[in-house]
Amino acid sequence: MPSKRIRTPSRSSPNLVTWLSLALLVILLDQASKVAILGRFAYGDSVFVTSWFNLVRVHNTGAAFSFLADASGWQRWFFVGLGVGASALFTWMLKAHAGQKLFCFSVTMLLGGALGNVIDRLWHGYVVDFLQVHGSWLAPIFPGGHFPAFNLADSAITAGAIGMILDELLRVRRS
User: Fold this and answer.
1) Is-contact 56 132, C-beta < 8 A?
2) pLDDT in tens, 97-147
3) Structural domain spans, the chain
4) What is the pTM of this model?
5) What is the CA radius of gyration of the chain?
6) What is the pLDDT, as a whole number, of residue 49?
7) Catalytic-labelled residue, pool 30, 70, 120, 154
8) CA distance 90 to 67
9) Looking at 30, 70, 120, 129, which residue is catalytic?
């Protein structure tokens, strides 16, 4: 009977602990930045930084682009549950594919971002957003030319989504 060859990651390949540590770093940076904003800005405050970027303090009780923000409150627990469920799936994915660097980096960014925003929902009842890009070039799509405010967790989620798309395109190209 032929022996089965089991592929194991090399010692230089990141493992589950590495990926979870990176996710924890994303969470810590996200939460530290939000604590700094909450400590220095009143709700609605805005500081002009460049001709295309502001720091603001806004609260989002909904999801991306304030989806469901006007709901009666049930959305808080829905998004907490969704974030916790997605985080469990992401952790399983990291364990199952720990040697696939781009894939795991992307999943790690999704995990860190999801949990960063879950912490906000549990702690405050809303997500703290504070980064705002603006310009006349955005005016045809966004009122006043202001892209909706976001935070570091949202940036990590976006980086993770882009990485997942890139990983899939590279996988398809290899096969």
Assistant:
1) yes
2) 988 999 999 999 999 999 999 999 999 999 999 999 999 999 999 989 989
3) 18-174
4) 0.85
5) 19
6) 96
7) 154
8) 23
9) 129
DSSP the chain: -PPPPPP---TTS--HHHHHHHHHHHHHHHHHHHHHHHHH--TT-EEEEETTEEEEEEEESSSGGGTTTTS-SHHHHHHHHHHHHHHHHHHHHHHHTTT-HHHHHHHHHHHHHHHHHHHHHHHTSSEEEEEEEB-GGGTTTSGGGBPPPB-HHHHHHHHHHHHHHHHHHHHHHH-
120 annotated active-site: no
Q: Which two tokens stand for residue 50?
A: 């460049």
How high is the pLDDT of residue 12? 66
Catalytic residue list contains 154: yes
